[in-house]
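FAQ
Q: What does a multi-component entry look like?
A: The components come first, one per line:
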Amino acid sequence: MSRIVNVALGQLGPIQSADSRAAVVARLCAMMREAHSLGAHVIVYPELALTTFFPRWYIEDEAVIDSYFEPSMPSRETLPLFELSRELGVGFYLGYAELAEEGGKRMRYNSAVLVDRRGAIVGKYRKIHVPGHFEHEPWRKFQHLEKRYFTPGQSFDVHQAFGGTIGMALCNDRRWAESYRVMALQGAEMVFIGYNTPVHNAPAPQHDDLSLFHNQLAVQAGAYQNGCWVASVAKGGLEEGVESIAGSLLVAPSGEVVARCVTKDDEVVLGRCDLDFCAVYKRTTFNFDLHRHPECYGLITARKGETLAADGSLLER
Amino acid sequence: MSRIVNVALGQLGPIQSADSRAAVVARLCAMMREAHSLGAHVIVYPELALTTFFPRWYIEDEAVIDSYFEPSMPSRETLPLFELSRELGVGFYLGYAELAEEGGKRMRYNSAVLVDRRGAIVGKYRKIHVPGHFEHEPWRKFQHLEKRYFTPGQSFDVHQAFGGTIGMALCNDRRWAESYRVMALQGAEMVFIGYNTPVHNAPAPQHDDLSLFHNQLAVQAGAYQNGCWVASVAKGGLEEGVESIAGSLLVAPSGEVVARCVTKDDEVVLGRCDLDFCAVYKRTTFNFDLHRHPECYGLITARKGETLAADGSLLER
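Then the predicted structure of the entire assembly, as tokens:
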């Protein structure tokens, strides 16, 4: 038996401040048409795929911050993408900044939607591992204020789509083994991830040369150790003076890279994924029911870090 | 500041059934002398480093099984290694089969000891992720009966030694992200791992070509995602007709391989590890206190697998 999903990596080159949403959606639509011509069932776009990566700036004006967010999805500007999805029968994963209203309170999330081949939203994810910092740090060459602009999401869910069980994550989530594991414990066979990763890491410039290596290592390990496919897609290139890594890739449950983007621009690459191939790992080396030992993992949920308990209180040492 | 630990990988070639413990200990001692000549502070030996890898055989005679186990450590045969350790000032990690008595009950564990530079045991670890199978499966070319012969251990602890915080794991533990994380949450700066990994994986022969890749991937990810050094050391080569991978390696907190064995025989390779280099990762990208979200990891301890709860009961789906 085999359950084939043809997955397109829909990597984006830079989006400058002056680029309108309409112009960006036109690029996304062009890539969807290209993906369709390659036989894609679904195309994976990056994180925050509709605007420039605004968390690099300290912005005080709430209205300016809001201008980067979508109060609804689809919105007027993104509707063409949903319509094209339905027309072509190509689903998609799209990262965007989400403005939500919860009990009369305005909330901002770094989110992604999963859209099926009929153009219908079948899943939403709000980024949990929000990286960067909260305070204004003008000493940096550029900032990374995601912790200021985004409230973390609450759960890693999975969704039935494309004939299988699909999980979603965003950017920094991919470096944390817990992300993949929580989804795999719910049966995830394929995980979609969008990211924006500047080459330069201000607090740890020693990492700059290793950015692409770390990107690939984390995704390969997540795929292998959970017996699932992972499609991880960048917005890369020089955006508003900041260079981001590209290196979008598709990794098999074996941990092998089976497709990869090679430019730092808009680029579509297709991979053919057999969801039944997951079983070769999920039923042997990584048969969780047989081999995991949750009774020994207590600290993973009991502690936040070396000095803090899960609830944020100080640990006695 | 820097806290340097010179770590020797003490890879072993095969140990045949006919090889006496005394002969094996002589090999271990020769390697310790070589490590000392290279300036080593500690040498890491493999898992089950005193005998052939007996779990490949279905053995019914309890006395024969016991013959592969050590009822004490040091034992008469291993004492020369402890004496040489004290003489040279070289600590070690040694994997062995442990016969214990607990409340009048005989228990068998797949264990390792950590010995400081004065030849004193400062830590013990009993393997948690015991792989393989429990029942006689004569259809296999060779068996992997670890689940039959070993009771799983109860906890991943860390130990103060060699000027830092040291964790221990064994073989299959290295493929499970939880192993490294539980130790890193206790401050592990360096993890020692011994392993025996047959090239041929009977239930999943599709993995055979990837054994060395998977070995390296799991260790690199464990080191990078926890900002710690990992020394992972094999018993490799053709042992009693079964070929095992070698490929012992030392990985930095950056995920980079900094030392590697290249033979399938007894081989000593040295790496110079600065424990303070861990901070470059532990205080930035992998600052757990800042960036982890244990409130979203509940399933990791609540579930064993996709169908079983942590206590082994069936999940309702």
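Q: Is there any commentary attached?
A: Sometimes. For this entry: The mean pLDDT of chain B is 97.
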